[in-house]
Design a protein that fits this description.
The protein contains 20 helices and two strands. The protein has about 525 residues and is mostly helical. About 60% of the residues are buried.
Length: about 525
């Protein structure tokens, strides 16, 4: 087998094997051996993601049109009669999320390998299982394994929160289990029903798309199938009003688990809507599109208002993560290549920025022993580098130019103007809300005078950001800035892959002419926009 055919299997298998060895025989391993094994499990997926990213860049330079998938490889799992074959590959749409999983997994691994926890081998082994599942989710071309890898990554999340979580960890894990099991069952039912009614006799995404393009399902059947997928995936992504599990779950989760779930795993439902539900069920999507757009605006405005009211730093970050899912849902609801491409770019950017904020909030807690925003103040005097990193991550989340978030939000706003101009106002209000709670948190934690309860902490030495925290944050912020300054590194692949994945009904709409005051031509694509 060539390196190309081994790249994706290695990204999945190495963290799985490393995690399995740590879980089963970790206590018999020498600490140095166990640590080296864990490092290998976190590094190999990140390297595979970087190699894939570079390969796509060279492919983009060599040709004007992407092949649908690179690194395509098939494994016969003995279920071919049911249309189930492990098929791995990357498209321009899945590549950013595959890279996201590799980067966040590596940063979470740096934190986990430098954390003092009970039963460290089991802790790291479960995190490696999450990484393995995440790499599988975004490289699966077969819908069955797309779902399978998600469940494989989700189960360790419950265990990590229940066993190693903070205050209220077990109750938060139970609430997450109830909500996410319901969402998983609804989405599974929708996927099985899609397979059964399509007549394609295959779970392969390409085969399903080709079959349904020739034999379109009736409008009523699409309506019901899309509803199952919308609410199943929506619960998994914390679509309003099915969101209450997320903030409390992230607040209780150990930091690497929060980074992996909020940053990467939650994108499963969004990716499922983008590449499965919308292109395969276009008539059903048209019926549910207004509902999705309104619920997405509720994520932005209502959850944004709730976020402002938070006084706990980690809870605030949990609610902010839920809020920003609204922008991605809006991008999908726009029904244009620009909106869908912006949604993909925003998924990548949000994943890195929220992971960085969870990482840095843990660094704040390690120095202050509290998440209470009202009990802090003046930490910049003792930890100026930590303050600089936190400010940078906060500004990225707000959408400051220079970070990848800016391009995703700008693309969504322009596409939203073409869909319904009035929706741009409440969506843009979310940017103001993000600035209010983000900058207020920065002010209360790092600037001003220390509170009376906080002053005793300043009577002892307080370390600035530690080397491992610095490197993990640099990995995440570096990815945000790289794509922020060179969005074409992803946007070309996204733009070339969306037409083949979506079909002509999702190409840029003529309605973009309504955006004439904006410097974007009616047929603008994400790649053209990001090159301006």
């Amino acid at each position: 087998m060539t390196l190309d055919s081994l790249l994706l299997p290695l990204a999945i298998a190495v963290p799985f094997v490393a995690g399995l060895v740590l879980l089963v025989g970790g206590e018999q391993l020498a600490p140095r051996t166990a640590r080296g094994l864990a490092w290998a499990g976190f590094i190999v997926p990140a390297l595979a993601a970087m190699v894939a990213w570079c390969a796509f860049a060279s492919q983009s330079a060599a040709t004007s049109l992407f092949t649908p998938y690179l690194f395509l490889v098939d494994f016969d799992t003995g279920l071919r009669a049911f249309g189930i074959t492990l098929r791995l590959g990357l498209s321009g749409v899945s590549l950013p999320l595959f890279v996201l999983a590799g980067i966040v997994g590596f940063a979470a691994g740096i934190h986990a390998l430098n954390s003092e926890v009970d039963r460290p081998n089991a802790y790291r082994g479960l995190l490696l299982f999450m990484v393995s599942g995440l790499m599988g989710v975004f490289s699966s071309v077969n819908v069955f394994y797309f779902y399978f890898f998600h469940e494989f990554a989700l189960i360790p999340t419950f265990i990590l929160i229940g066993w190693w979580g903070g205050a209220g960890g077990r109750s938060a894990a139970l609430e997450m289990t109830i909500y996410l099991t319901l969402g998983a069952m609804l989405s599974l039912l929708g996927l099985i029903a899609l397979y059964a009614t399509s007549g394609a006799n295959s779970f392969d995404l390409v085969s399903l798309g080709q079959w349904l393009a020739q034999t379109q399902l009736s409008g009523l059947r699409q309506y019901h199938l899309f509803a199952l997928l919308l609410f199943g995936f929506g619960i998994l992504v914390s679509l309003w009003p099915f969101h209450s599990w997320a903030p409390t779950g992230y607040a209780a989760a150990p930091t690497p688990a929060a980074m992996l779930h909020a940053g990467v795993l939650k994108k499963f439902g969004l990716y499922g809507l983008l590449v499965i539900a919308v292109p395969l069920l276009p008539v059903g999507f048209a019926d549910w599109r207004p509902v999705l757009a309104c619920l997405a605006l509720a994520n932005v405005v209502i959850i944004g208002a709730v976020t402002i009211a938070q006084r706990d730093l980690k809870l605030m970050l949990g609610y902010s993560s839920v809020m920003h899912m609204g922008y991605i849902f809006l991008g999908i609801a726009c029904l244009s290549a620009l909106g869908a491409g912006g949604a993909v770019l925003l998924m990548f950017a949000h994943g890195l920025s929220i992971a960085a904020l969870f990482l840095l909030s843990d660094a704040v807690y390690a120095r202050t022993h509290t998440y209470d925003l009202g009990a802090m103040g003046g930490l910049c005097q003792k930890a100026p580098v930590l303050a600089a990193f936190f400010v940078a991550a906060t500004l990225a989340g707000i959408g400051l130019p220079g970070f990848a978030n800016f391009w995703g939000e700008l693309s969504v706003f322009i596409a939203l103007w073409a869909y319904h101009p009035w929706m741009v106002a409440p969506a843009a209000l979310g940017v103001i809300i993000s600035a209010v709670y983000g900058l207020r948190a920065v002010s209360r934690v790092f600037f001003g005078q220390p509170t009376e309860n906080f002053k005793p902490l300043f009577d002892r030495p307080v370390a600035d950001i530690l080397p491992y925290e610095r490197w993990a944050a640099l990995v995440l912020l570096g990815g945000l800035m790289f794509v922020g300054f060179w969005p074409a590194s992803f946007s070309r692949g996204i733009n070339d892959s969306l037409p083949s994945a979506y079909g002509p009904q999702l190409l840029p709409q003529n309605a973009l002419r309504a955006a004439a005051p904006l410097p974007v031509k009616p047929s603008a694509t994400l790649a053209e926009l990001s090159s301006r």
